[in-house]
Amino acid sequence: MALESAKFVIIGAGLAGMATAYQLALRGESGVIVLEKEQFPGMHSSGRNAAMIRQVVGDRDILKLAKRGAEFFNGRAEGWQSPPPFQRSGSLLVASGKAWQKLLADAEAARKAGVEFQQWDPAQIEKSVPCTKGGKLEGGIFCPGDGVTDTDGLINGYYQAAKARGVSLLTECEVSAVMVENGRLKGVETSRGFIRGGTVVNAGGPWASKVAGLAGALKIEFTPLRRHLYYTGPLEWASQDWPYVWDTANEVYFRPESAGLLLSPCDESPARPAIPIVDPAVEETLAAKLAVSFPALLEVPVARAWAGLRTFAPDRKFVIGWDPIVKGFYWVAGLGGHGVTTSPAVGELAAGELCSGKGKSGSPFLPSRFL
Fold first, then answer.
1. Rounded CA gap, 104 and 110, in Å?
2. Measured between alpha carbons, how far is residue 222 from residues 124, 219, 225, 264, 332 in Å?
3. Residue 211's closest CA among 166, 262, 163, 176?
4. Phi, psi (5° rounding) for residue 229?
5. FAD dependent oxidoreductase domain: from which residue to which, for each copy (predicted)?
6. What is the pLDDT of residue 1?
7. Which of 10, 248, 284, 369 has its CB 3.0 to 4.6 Å from that of 201, i.e. a possible disulfide?
8. CB 169 within 8 A of CB 25
9. Cross-strand partners of 141
10. CB neighbours of residue 317 within 10 Å
């Protein structure tokens, strides 16, 4: 006997899964169940990041989703009791050399897409954020519509709005099998019983490849990459009103956090799907990058360090769409480092296709590109 039956079974209660469930609920869909193997949603990739909203990005396809995501954070969310958690402190992307020319090109593409920004020279950068003094910076792009969210609050906001419209969340519920007959989905076997469902959404994050394997769906080798974050503890001189500052040439950033600063050397190392272990050696990488980009921060203390995962498809583009092999199997995976910013738009895109039963022809995110 089936534990439950559902029209849509979403595997994974991170940003991708909960945003999709929220958007399905807004469209009046009933019979939506989200399955999460952990005790709480967002315990892995979704909940262990810097929670920054960024619109000026290099990928032109992701740019469109990022802009739509920023509109969500800067407005009111339908069905939410309060606006999405968001500190509109802005972003300041800085660079030098060839990276500065690329940043200018990315900013121009963002401008054409409707993103507002200002171009700053080194003097204005230092005046606005004094601890950038001495860095190898040729210029900066300040985007006032960017900022920082609370990832836990964001996921919970999606869930509460979806729950009010009938969406169910089952935690500590691990999927062990995806049942397929004659190329069509029948349901999923879980640690809490069988759930009958005609459509399964793969929002498994670092486990997306495993979930697809259970269904016999298209084989896509996702790679979880570990990235470290460092919190300084309170600093008297660190203004919490500063924008986050990201050197795109040297790939290192910092942002205000809890009366201090949060820093990352933007490191990438392959890791297995789990809460990643901190590598003490990466702190040396951070110091080397700070020495070039933000030498004034070289002596800041490290009160706490942790790491999170960013999961990518082989071409580092999102994978969103219907599986070309198994009918009823839908992908929302590989959001990499853009999940926080784009989750509102990704949920809209996925829910629209799930409701219609059709995919968007020519979409750059289609799983079929890996056939």
1. 10
2. 41, 9, 10, 23, 12
3. 176
4. -130, 145
5. 8-351
6. 40
7. 10
8. no
9. 93, 119
10. 18
Segment 247-299, tens digit of pLDDT: 999 999 999 999 999 999 999 999 999 989 999 999 999 999 999 999 999 99
With 0.85 as the threshold, say if the pTM is over it.
Answer: yes
Q: Say whether both 143 and 239 belong to one domain.
A: yes
Amino acid identity, position 311: T
Both 240 and 304 in one domain: the answer is: yes
Q: What is the mean pLDDT of residues 12-33?
A: 97
* Separation CA 234–CA 14 (nearest Å): 30
* Structure-token match 């049942």, residue found: 179
165 and 192 part of one domain: yes
Look-up of token digits 């802009």: 67
For residues 192 and 331, state if they share a domain. Answer: yes
Among 292, 312, 332, give the residue marking a domain's end: 312
pLDDT band at 361 (very low <50, low <70, confident <90, very high): confident
Q: Could you tell me the CATH number of the domain that includes residue 89?
A: 3.30.9.10
Q: Are residues 191 and 287 in the same domain?
A: no
Amino acid identity for residue 68 in this structure: R
Are the beta carbons of 197 and 188 closer than 8 angstroms?
A: yes
Q: Of how many residues is the chain composed?
A: 371
- Do both 235 and 135 map to the same domain? yes
Contacts 24+ apart (CB under 8 A), 283-289: 283/228, 283/230, 286/228, 286/230, 286/252, 289/247, 289/250, 289/251, 289/252, 289/265
Range of the domain at 44: 4-48+152-222+314-370
